[in-house]
């Protein structure tokens, strides 16, 4: 049985391994939530796309306790962790690559914002326009997409792209001084070896939820797909190296 306290411990360990790839992760979270708060509603309706175990969703509710956050992911194990750890959140199992995913959200009004961190690069460039197009149907006019991710510019500015990655690597070296936390693979090996996750791991295997490589790593892929989906303004609100917070305004 996965207990509340055990789930919180595993999510804390998840957060540490994520910080190994994202030394400015908390700063990016803060900038993203600042943007949601700047919408001016004490009770925003927010959809967290590719929420994982709910790290961003939980931080949103801590800052904006009047918010309604609908947290969406396709990974049964990560959803199980989130449900055990954060009973105030509503988790939805849906694959963003499958048309019709928005129908499972159960929204009673258009969303004020959709947010995501380090998740949407798993969606292929071919699937991005469809996903963003469907997202536009559930956002209110003027609503925001806020996507924090490693987004590269090698196709447009290769020299700058190399410098961006160098800045990121230097910051990680300073932050961790050669003592990096466990990596993504080590975390997954450890969590799936825990007997408390046997049922969730079996469900994850059946669902084929494992990821292999980045499918849409380029900033231009996301900008083009968002513009095609009817978002009228697209730009970066925050950046450190190639780690960006991309914002798009629904027209």
UniProtKB/TrEMBL annotation:
Transmembrane portions of the chain: none
Domain called Methyltransferase: residue spans: 46-143
Residues spanning the signal sequence: none
Source species, domain of life: Bacteria
Single GO molecular function: methyltransferase activity
Pfam families, per database record: Methyltransf_25
Record protein name field: Methyltransferase type 11
Organism of derivation: Planomonospora sphaerica
């Amino acid at each position: 049985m996965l207990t509340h306290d055990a789930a919180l411990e595993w999510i804390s360990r998840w957060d540490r391994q994520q910080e190994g790839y994202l030394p400015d992760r908390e700063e990016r979270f803060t900038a993203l939530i600042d943007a949601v708060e700047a919408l001016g509603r004490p009770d925003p309706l927010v959809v967290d796309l590719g929420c994982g175990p709910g790290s961003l969703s939980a931080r949103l509710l801590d800052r904006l306790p009047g918010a309604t956050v609908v947290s969406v992911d396709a990974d049964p194990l990560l959803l199980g962790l989130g449900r055990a750890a954060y009973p105030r959140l509503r988790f939805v199992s849906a694959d963003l690559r499958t048309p019709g995913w928005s129908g499972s959200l159960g929204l009673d009004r258009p969303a004020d914002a959709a947010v995501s961190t380090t998740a949407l690069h798993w969606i292929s460039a071919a699937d991005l326009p469809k996903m963003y197009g469907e997202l536009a149907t559930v956002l209110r006019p003027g609503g925001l997409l806020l996507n924090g991710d490693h987004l590269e510019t090698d196709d447009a500015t290769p020299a700058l792209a190399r410098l961006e990655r160098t800045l990121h690597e230097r910051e990680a070296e300073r932050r961790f001084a050669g003592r990096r936390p466990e990596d993504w693979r080590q975390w997954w090996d450890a969590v799936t070896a825990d007997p408390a996750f046997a049922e969730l791991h079996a469900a994850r295997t059946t669902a084929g939820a494992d990821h292999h490589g980045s499918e849409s790593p380029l900033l231009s892929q996301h900008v083009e797909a968002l513009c095609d989906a009817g978002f009228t303004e697209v730009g970066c609100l925050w950046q450190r190296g190639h780690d960006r917070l991309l914002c798009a305004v629904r027209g």
